[in-house]
Amino acid sequence: MAWTTNEIAKHKDARKHPGGPGIILKYAGHDATSAFVPIHSPDAIQRNLSPSQCLGRLADTKGGEVDVQMGHTQDEMRVEREMKRRPPLNQILNLTDIEVPFYSAGTDDEVSLRENRRAFDRFSSIRVMRPVSICDPSTKILGYHSSLPIFVSGAAQAILGELNITRACGKANIIQMVCTTDSAAALPSQPLFFQLYKVTDTAASTKVVQEAEQLGYKAIALTVDAVVVGNRERDVKSLWVLEQQEGKNSGYDKSFGSSAVNRRNAFDSDLSWKETIPWLRSITKLPIILKGIQCVEDAMLAVEAGVEAILVSNHGGMCILMVWLSNSKDLGLMFPRRDVIKAVCLGSKAVGLGRPFLYALSAYGEAGVTKMLDVLHREITISMRLLGAASIRDLTPEMVERVDWEPVRQRNTKL
Ligand SMILES: Cc1cc2nc3c(=O)[nH]c(=O)nc-3n(C[C@H](O)[C@H](O)[C@H](O)COP(=O)(O)O)c2cc1C
């Protein structure tokens, strides 16, 4: 049976695609493997489509069959160009060296993204005359050993496969939060947390959580800061440019970024303290992390609701600012990645990193992630020593102070 692109666009099943029918149309008549594989789990087709949904061979609008075109798309050629331009891995000295433009996008005019980066530059302090020749940056996160006070904050769309992140983290003893849409096979004894986007179909979310528990995940991180997806203008612009270059109208809704297109239909926008936490507690024994708390009032409500931890986050400036982690005993600020140590001083148990793992993975695969963790280990240990801390326990609020230019001047005049 042959189908025209118009018929595909109108078909109810194509319209159910979480990424919208536009992306299906974009690849209609082409080999879509390179677009499909990076953002779908290997069993996505088996899990979501019945054999009867295999509609047949594609056809052009005149009814003739379309050959699968094996040529490169603009996206593929752009990736190839960028891969040739990347520096050798041994020249990567810090996390900024591996930044990839796509993942850097924030929402709207990116004020939150910039403020996320700036906010913690204002904190600084160094203590001297403290023995630090032996320095141990390891800690525990929800009771699980971690070699550094960081973990992987779930970020879907890991272009070279999130399993490379899992493997590198397993070897380095770093905990990974795996996204709802991704899959991971942990090394033996490697703890993984599961990131949950609750969807409107509560039974479907219940099934996903229970599967995660059976698979051995150690915690459920319910994302609460993305009930509506931010408008990632940078994503939209780059998509539009690419579509123009390709001379096609892909059918994308250009008022939303690509991820928004993936998500806007299914997410439950009615999360509430009254309904959602009791529901989650009733279906799992795993500790609950609320990912995306952004103010003290909600942090206190989270404590009242009895969740084990909160992650203060605005999706890295992609949805609406920073990150806070707590458990029933502690509340703590969590800072952007360069300020991991300052965050721990102010009470965080750990700092979640999202994009750095994606950058490292996209450019260099597992070796890139391992390199990035080496860089982080070096930076964190040097920072601790310079700050005067030999262990994570030594990182206390007294170790840092907020320094603003104006108050510093005022303070100096009083001296
Ligand atoms: C490309 C991309 C995809 C993401 N996908 C998810 C997701 O599926 N679920 C989620 O809870 N957070 C997601 N996030 C947010 C990250 O978990 C993290 O909160 C954010 O990137 C901030 O950390 P960073 O500044 O280190 O990147 C994503 C972030 C990026 C950049």
Please explain how this structure is put together:
The protein has 415 residues and is α/β, with parallel strands linked by helices. The chain has two domains: 2-71, no CATH class; 98-228 and 267-402, Aldolase class I (TIM Barrel). It is 38% helix and 13% strand. It has 16 helices and 15 strands. It has helices at 5-10, 12-16, 21-26, 33-36, 44-48, 74-85, 111-118, 162-172, 202-215, 233-246, 258-263, 276-283, 296-305, 340-345, 355-387, 405-414; strands at 2-3, 57-58, 123-124, 139-141, 144-146, 150-152, 175-178, 192-196, 219-223, 288-293, 309-312, 323-326, 331-334, 351-353, 401-402. The strands form five sheets. Strands 11-10-9-8-7-6-14 form a seven-stranded parallel sheet. Strands 1-2 form a two-stranded parallel ribbon. The longest helix is centred in the last third of the chain and has 33 residues, at 355-387. The protein is globular and about 75 Å long. Mean pLDDT is 75; it is low at 65-70, 239-265 and 318-336. The structure holds flavin mononucleotide. Flavin mononucleotide binds next to helix 15.
What would a concise description of this structure say?
The protein has helices at residues 5-10, 12-16, 21-26, 33-36, 44-48, 74-85, 111-118, 162-172, 202-215, 233-246, 258-263, 276-283, 296-305, 340-345, 355-387, 405-414; strands at 2-3, 57-58, 123-124, 139-141, 144-146, 150-152, 175-178, 192-196, 219-223, 288-293, 309-312, 323-326, 331-334, 351-353, 401-402.
